[in-house]
Write a structure and sequence with these properties.
The complex is a heterodimer of chains A (333) and B (609). With 333 residues, chain A is an alpha/beta fold. Chain A has ten helices and 13 strands. The radius of gyration of chain A is 19 Å and the shape is globular. The N terminus and C terminus of chain A are likely disordered. In chain B, the strands form four sheets. Chain B has a five-stranded parallel sheet. Chain B has a four-stranded mixed sheet with strand order 11-12-10-13. Classes of the chains: A alpha/beta (333), B alpha/beta (609).
């Protein structure tokens, strides 16, 4: 094989649990993972909360050296983090190698804390895949931490869609009924026309929307405002308002929805908006593997970066990855 | 925003892809194109999104034809001499096929896996069509023959266990899709050599759908006692199939098995178009090849189909059947029926046309000069006979109507001042709405279907209500186009959406037709030059496939788009309404000329009324 990665299997095993900042603060993690991008929010969690990590790594983006990037580098550099600047394509291999080395040096389960606040959706998907790979050797418990951003007005101009497809090949999903209609489940954000553009691109059958509700009411107002044409598309029954502060509750609601729609449709999750919803989508897709796809629809490199400051709210969701129920190649052929 | 409890109302919900064969049949309105498609010929349907490709192909399924109730249904059913095998695809399935092996297997293996997925999908659809066409017999001997036929096919298709009915054959192919995914995932555990060996010895990965279908046709035709029975493979939305699978299919299209017809649907533009056409033409021994374009360069070509759709829509919604003009009024650009009743000519001195000529001449110095130069008196146009003048007047009618509606004044140098308020009736009326929807059934439902749903057909629908619905649909369409990326042009510093480029074109057309000196021959279409950059070409291609640009082909019925270079296009009339231009193609210029002076992106570029 081209890489030394242990590969994913057909039956990944992942269970999701509620978690909290208090639980995270009282846990000794084998690895604490952060990201370094342009958002000042990237360092908020590690700067303001004392988290124990035997190994501390901050993965930097190579293409986002603007706004708060230098401050983020300086902070992580002076606080015991190993800084690894790398292209996203190399991220899963490097992360796997790091976690595998941590895993080899200890007995029992592997405990990881990851701040996803400034992480790209692709890297978040890679984190889940790597956790599944590591779980082939031992149980991996991951706390996904999300720092809510302060309010900033939505962009005024709609942007084009440069990338539309599965967030990674693993999350493309699979079906034995290609003729069944697609059901698109959107996490709604506040990029104008983005969801409508994605609907036109996907041409789904039924559409469902998860609408984020934060502490600051301006978020919801903005989300509602910039998505005006969308509300004509989705009946009220098919809109789910989820609280950023209750990620486990959101996971349960999404998972239940998936159970019902996948009987008749091919579900695609398209998470716009807060990153916490993306991780919820990824974990839900693993739970329903391989019948649920997770897509990334993004504007690509043409989009100007906009800073995000952390509001102080921190929310956590936990996933336990266990040894998969793999299949033997001998059963084929 | 959350007060609506109604079902989705705009474009995606009208997509035939998500409807059953019976549901498609329930509201199906036949057209000349459908009758062509029903013929015993290989067919290629090309059209932008929403143009009805899926509907036409789905209607060729046995279940749809059986369920169809229409005055012409029986006659058309009788003319269909084949059993249709509908093979759908979509962008989701395309990405899933492409992701087999999770990007971690060799390209050769990945290609093998994706072709195997496609083959399995085709065979599963074929098994379903056979199952629908041939009921399980009840008589013992017949049942035995039926069961043996299925067993022979399942052996040839290399199933682990023989299927006993065509229904179970279908389920077996579903299981095979599952096996394929698991196999692809597990291949990652293997070394390159192991993976190659495993793939090589897994026979069903290397099957050819055409050979297996041909075998099944032998068996099934024998079973039904009709050796020449024809089967049509209906491949929908082929542009969404992975490229290597398309190559495989193009090769299969060269089949000369006369019991097999291929009927394919594609978007208007793909650089593989000529390969599809060549393959199908080379396979036509005994069977003709028909190309069907589901876009209408001239609005008149779609008018009759739209009228049929109108009456079908009224019937479907339980509304009184009325002529569209009785509900929507006449088009602003048409000569009024009153004009004809007053005089024998629509150009009489008190006609609407004469009034507009007079009105425009009073505020547009360039038009007044034009009339003078052509020796035309607006008050005496009906007496013009012979020579060029009547032709000039006829040609000017729509342009004069548009300028009169939009202009406040134009000075001698052609400096135009626009009215701040536009008459709402400018783009309303039956023929105008029909032109705006471009013969696209999904747009028709989004615009006219919604109008009838909201207002019924008992009374005339107010022009403001018509305009409001046009704006809803137009806004939605512009949102779609905005999501298509376009490379930077001119002095722009960054990549933008293709809509800004189309806006630039629309603005140039508007300037030529309205906001400048009067010209009888303004610009209203463009030709893409040979030297257009490849990335801009790609964006334009996507706009064509989305229905934002309409190809203006020559007379050749198979003038399909293998390239956009040197081809002529107009803007979709749904966009034309936004730009306030004529709903007709007008003279063409090079696209380069239209985009040469793209302003800096910091300056306002959007055409805003």
């Amino acid at each position: 094989m081209k890489t030394s990665l242990h590969s994913l299997t057909s039956d990944p095993c992942c269970k999701v649990h509620p978690s909290s900042l208090e639980q995270v603060q009282s846990t000794a993690f084998d690895a604490l993972i952060a990201s370094i991008g342009f958002e000042n929010r990237a360092r908020y969690f590690c700067e303001n909360h004392r988290i124990h990590g035997t190994k501390k790594i901050a993965y930097a983006f190579t293409d986002r050296n603007k706004i708060g990037f230098e401050k983020n580098v300086a902070f992580f550099d002076s606080n015991g983090f190993t800084i690894d600047s790398l292209e996203s394509i190399d991220f899963p291999i490097r992360l796997y190698q790091e976690l595998d080395s941590v895993s080899s040096a200890k007995e029992g389960e592997l405990r990881i804390c990851i701040d996803i606040s400034s992480m790209s959706r692709t890297r978040m998907a890679s984190v889940v895949e790597v956790a599944l790979m590591c779980a082939s050797k031992r149980t991996v418990i991951v706390d996904f931490v999300y720092c809510v951003a302060t309010y900033s007005p939505p962009p005024t101009e709609p942007t084009f869609i440069e990338t539309a497809g599965p967030v990674t090949p693993f999350f493309a999903g699979w079906t034995t009924r290609p003729e069944a209609p697609t059901c698109a489940i959107f996490g709604v954000g506040y990029e104008p026309d983005r969801v409508i553009g994605a609907i036109e691109y996907l041409e789904p059958g039924p559409i469902r929307a998860f609408v984020p509700v934060g502490t600051d009411p301006r978020f919801l107002e903005a989300v509602v405002d910039v998505n005006q044409p969308l509300w004509d598309e989705i009946s009220r029954d098919h809109q789910t308002f989820y609280k950023l502060s209750e990620p486990f509750n959101t996971f349960v609601r999404l998972e239940s929805l998936l159970y019902s729609v996948k009987q008749e449709y091919r579900p695609i999750l398209v998470p716009f908006g807060p990153k916490i919803f993306t991780i919820i989508c990824l974990l839900s897709a693993v739970s329903h593997y391989p019948s649920v796809a997770v897509w990334r629809v993004s504007g690509g490199a043409g989009i100007d970066p906009v800073d995000c400051e952390a509001s102080g709210e921190v929310h956590v969701i936990r996933a336990v990855f266990d040894k998969p129920k793999g299949n033997d190649l001998a059963s084929f052929g | 925003m959350v007060d609506k409890d109604q079902a989705p109302t705009l474009f995606p919900s009208f997509n035939a892809r998500n409807l059953s064969a019976a549901d498609v049949a329930r509201t199906f309105v036949p057209s000349e194109n459908f009758e062509k498609l029903c013929g015993q010929s290989h067919s290629l349907i090309v059209g932008p999104r929403g143009s009805g490709k899926t509907t036409l192909l789905k209607m060729l399924q046995q279940a749809a034809l059986d369920a169809w109730k229409h005055l012409d249904a029986e006659r058309i059913r009788q003319s269909v001499r084949f059993t249709g095998v509908y093979i759908p695809t979509d962008v989701n399935w395309d990405k899933q096929i492409a992701a087999l092996g999770l990007g971690r297997v060799d390209e050769k293996i990945r290609d093998c896996l994706s072709v195997a997925a496609f083959t399995t999908h085709v065979l599963r659809s074929f098994a379903q069509s056979i199952d629908e066409a041939i009921p399980v017999p009840t008589e013992q001997d017949a049942l035995k023959r039926y069961s043996e036929a299925v067993t022979r096919i399942s052996d040839e298709w290399q199933l682990d266990r023989p299927a006993r009915s065509f229904q179970s054959l279908r389920y077996c192919m579903r299981s095979r899709l599952n096996d394929l995914h698991r196999f692809a995932g597990q291949l990652q555990f293997a070394s390159k050599e192991e993976a190659n060996a495993l793939v090589a010895r897994t026979g069903w990965l290397h099957q050819n759908f055409l050979e297996l279908s041909s075998f099944a046709i032998d068996v099934v035709n024998d079973l039904v006692g009709n050796p020449g029975k024809m089967w049509a493979f209906l491949f929908d939305e082929l542009e969404l199939v992975p490229a290597n699978v398309r190559e495989h299919l193009i090769a299969c299209l060269r089949s000369t098995d006369q019991r097999i017809l291929f009927k394919l649907s594609l978007v208007p533009y793909t650089d593989e178009m000529s390969q599809f056409v060549d393959s199908m033409q080379s396979a036509t021994s005994g069977n003709d090849f028909v190309a069907i374009r589901l876009y209408y360069p001239k609005k008149e070509d779609a008018s009759s189909f739209c009228r049929h759709l109108w009456h079908a829509t009224l019937a479907e919604l339980g509304q009184p059947d009325k002529e569209p003009e009785a509900v929507l009024g006449e088009s602003y650009f048409q000569s009024s029926s009153d004009d004809w009743s007053k005089t024998t000519s629509a150009y009489g001195s008190d006609s609407r046309i004469a009034e507009r000529f007079n009105s425009l001449a009073q505020k547009d110095v360039t038009f007044a000069n034009f009339l003078k130069n052509h020796d035309i008196d607006p008050s005496d146009m009906q007496s013009l006979d012979g020579g060029e003048r009547p032709k000039v007047v006829r040609k000017a009618v729509s342009l004069v109507a548009l300028r009169d509606a939009l202009l406040r004044s134009v000075d001698e140098r052609g400096n135009a001042k626009l009215k701040s308020k536009v008459k709402p009736e400018l783009y309303t009326g039956a023929e105008t709405l029909f032109a705006i929807v471009e013969g696209n059934p999904r747009w028709f439902k989004g615009l006219l279907g919604e109008l009838v749903k909201k207002h019924g057909s008992k009374r005339k629908i107010d022009v403001k209500e018509q305009l409001q619905q046009i704006e809803i649909v137009s806004k939605r369409f512009r949102a779609l186009l905005r999501t298509i990326p376009c490379p930077k042009i001119g002095r722009q510093s960054s990549q933008r959406g293709i809509l800004l480029t189309l806006d630039q074109v629309g603005k140039a057309f508007h300037t030529s037709q309205v906001a400048g000196p009067f010209s009888l021959d303004p610009i209203g279409s463009f030709t893409i030059p040979n030297d257009v950059p490849a990335d801009l070409l790609e964006s334009l291609g996507r706009a064509v496939n989305a229905g934002g640009l309409i190809h203006m082909p020559g007379e050749d019925p198979v003038d399909l788009l293998s390239t956009l270079r040197t081809k002529r296009f107009r803007l979709s009339y749904l966009l034309a309404v936004h730009y306030k231009i004529l709903l007709r193609a007008e003279r063409d210029v090079s696209l380069n000329g239209l985009l040469e002076n793209v302003p800096d992106e910091n300056k306002p570029t959007l055409f805003d009324f």
